[in-house]
Amino acid sequence: MDSIATPATLDDPLYYLRNFETVLRWVSECHGDLLDDAERAFVDGVAALPEAPRALLTRMVMRSGELFRADKLRYPEIGPAMPALTILEAAGWVRRDGDLTLEELFRLYTKAELGRALAPRLAAAGLDRHGRKADWLVALAEPASTPRPLSAWDPEGHLPAAWQLTVMPVCERLRLMFFGNLYQDWREFVLTELGTFRYERVRLDATTRPYRHRADLDAWLALHACRQRFEAGEAVEAVAADLPAGDTGNPWVEERRHKLRYKLARQWEREHQLEQAEALYAQCQHPDARARRLRVLERRGEYRAALTLADEAAARPESEAERQALDRLLPRLHRKLGLPRPAPAAPLATEEWSLTLPLSRLIDAGRVEGAVAEHFHDDRAPVFYVENTLLTGLFGLLCWEALFAPLPGAFFHPFQSGPADLHRPDFVARRRDLFAAAFADLESGRHRRRILDTFQRKQGIQSPLVHWGMLSEPLLELALDCIPAAHLARHGERLLCDIKANRAGLPDLIQFFPERGEYRMIEVKGPGDRLQDNQRRWLSYFAEQEMPAVVCKVAWEAR
Questions:
Q1: Tens of pLDDT along 404-462?
Q2: What integer pLDDT is reported at residue 186 of this predicted model?
Q3: Is a pLDDT exceeding 60 seen at residue 2?
Q4: If 111 and its partner were Cys, which of 18, 133, 337, 395 is the partner (CB 3.0–4.6 Å)?
Q5: 207, 411 in Cβ contact below 8 A?
């Protein structure tokens, strides 16, 4: 099944058509039971068309928008557009002179063309025909821009014909079935063929698809439409009222539902609509929703309700980030309710250095981390700027097989940089044996060969944990010489507890001491900078595990 999605060679002038046909075949084979009669007829109808209209349809589908001018549809490999458009019109997939809003009219035609077609309107509005096109649009705008046929905008026929693509909803649904989302599009094929992106080849079949029922797709598309309305600036109240009700039981759909609920509640919070925000947070299973709800309750002065919820959260925190937030919130709530203060959180136990450098060092290095790296660097103790890339990359290389295991619900199509369930609670449990094998290699010392072999074999392939541009074989070898396997294991264990949160916040620099096989991590803070929460969590963990890390606070010498 995986061979069906191989991108077409760009040497073929009709490569885009071959890729579109690949998607149609894939959807027919893997999602055929989710297609209705009209969608099935479309897929079959495309295959039955002559090549030129098939290619032109594909070009229109892959371009932005649904309105096109025939005189702008110029493709040498297709030939004249009109014969192909006539065939597509007979199929009902395009419509001549479809309805246009004023904004679409102005987007489709030039100022000179509009000046001729709209001359009476411009004159009636007292607009200068030599004025700016943008000014015309503002002056002619109506309270509710009603779409009209081109002939209504241009009764004298000055403007070239416009064609409207009528099958975009079908094509968007097919794209959703193939990619499992709508943020990826047809360019993935081209970028892969160009070598811009390379993806791991994972065995795919009908069992890997993210949607089991047509209702899943309907709900996903309805949520997508609501999100588009929200991002376009529509009132939160209107969007929230149209959120599809119920629970599909599909994790991909429900994740999107709760993410949108969180965005809407967050916007209500910004607009000081705290009652509505709190109610929506209460319905939301987004990881940060409970923490935001607590903040809203506190802002509303509902301290008792906030304390009850905070105590529930403290008994079973969803994450280290929530635990950290509760450590700040609970003392405030106790104080406001006149209750004894809870025991304070332990202070950060990380060693701190103070370093004063000449300002010229910053100018030469370009950034404070670079200036500190230069200061501490020595040929026998080299320093590298790695931030979130080295330790995470080592673990990603070690656990490559686990990350790219072909499990149901992990990979839907050939253009995924990582498993779709990477941030789901059962991600590790579903791969327990594979992760256990990787950790066993750390215990036995086989991890070095495994990591370096993976680095050589998988070079450049997209991964959620490996940032290829920041890694090199000499850097990896030096790290493996100096970082004990037990430390790599402890880092990996914490990373797997919450990959989304814990793959960030690592120290900026690492210094190696090859002669004695040691290392230390250095978090750099310039004047006025402070530790972020995720950095504090990592530094606390390093201290608990006796892994060497320091905070270096930098000041600049006065001139």
A1: 999 888 988 888 999 999 998 899 999 999 999 999 999 999 999 999 999 999 999 99
A2: 84
A3: no
A4: 133
A5: no
What strands lie across the sheet with 518-525, from one edge to the other?
351-357, 549-556, 518-525, 509-513, 383-385
Amino acid (one-letter) located at 330: L
In angstroms, rounded to a whole number, what is the distance separating the alpha carbons of residues 19 and 124? Answer: 50
% of the chain exceeding 90 in pLDDT: 73
Cα distance between residue 314 and residue 330, in whole Å: 9
- C-alpha span between 485 and 489 (Å, rounded): 6
Phi/psi-derived region of residue 92, left when phi > 0, alpha when psi is between -120 and 50, beta in every other case: left
- Give helix 274-282 / helix 289-299 axis angle, nearest 10°: 150
Task: Tell me the β-bridge partners of 75.
Answer: 79
Can you read off the two tokens belonging to residue 539? Answer: 């530094």
Question: What is the distance between the alpha carbons of residues 67 and 274, in angstroms, rounded to a whole number?
Answer: 42
- Read off the pTM: 0.82
Listed in sequence order, the residues at least 6 apart from 10 whose beta carbon sits closer than 8 Å to its beta carbon are 190, 193, 194
Q: What is the 3-state secondary structure (H, E, C) of 426-494?
A: CCCHHHHHHHHHHHHHHHHCCHHHHHHHHHHHCCCECCCCCCHHHCCHHHHHHHHHHCCHHHHHHHHHH
Q: In Å, how far are 23, 199, 404, 431, 462 from 417, measured between CA atoms?
A: 19, 6, 9, 18, 5
Q: pLDDT category, 559, cuts 50, 70, 90?
A: low
Compute CA 529 distance to the chain's CA centroid, rounded to the nearest angstrom: 28
Taking alpha carbons only, the member of 62, 59, 64 closest to residue 74 is: 59
Tokens of 284: 């939301």
> Could you identify the residue written with the tokens 């950790």?
439
Instruction: Identify the structural domains of the chain with CATH numbers, from first to last.
Output: 2-176 (no CATH), 210-336 (1.25.40), 351-556 (no CATH)
Six token digits for residue 365: 């290095």
CB 73 within 8 A of CB 162: no
**Cα-flanking dihedrals φ and ψ of residue 353, to 5°?**
-115, 150
The one-letter amino acid code at 24 reads: L
In single-letter form, the type of residue at position 449 comes to R
Q: What is the pLDDT of residues 297-311, one digit of tens each?
A: 999 999 999 999 999
* H/E element, 524: strand 518-525
Residues 6+ apart with CB under 8 A from 86: none
Q: How far apart are CA 248 and CA 213, in angstroms?
A: 9
Q: Are 239 and 264 in contact (CB under 8 A)?
A: yes
The Cα diameter of the chain in Å comes to 86
DSSP 13: T
- Name the 3-class secondary structure at 203: coil
Q: Are 320 and 501 in contact (CB under 8 A)?
A: yes
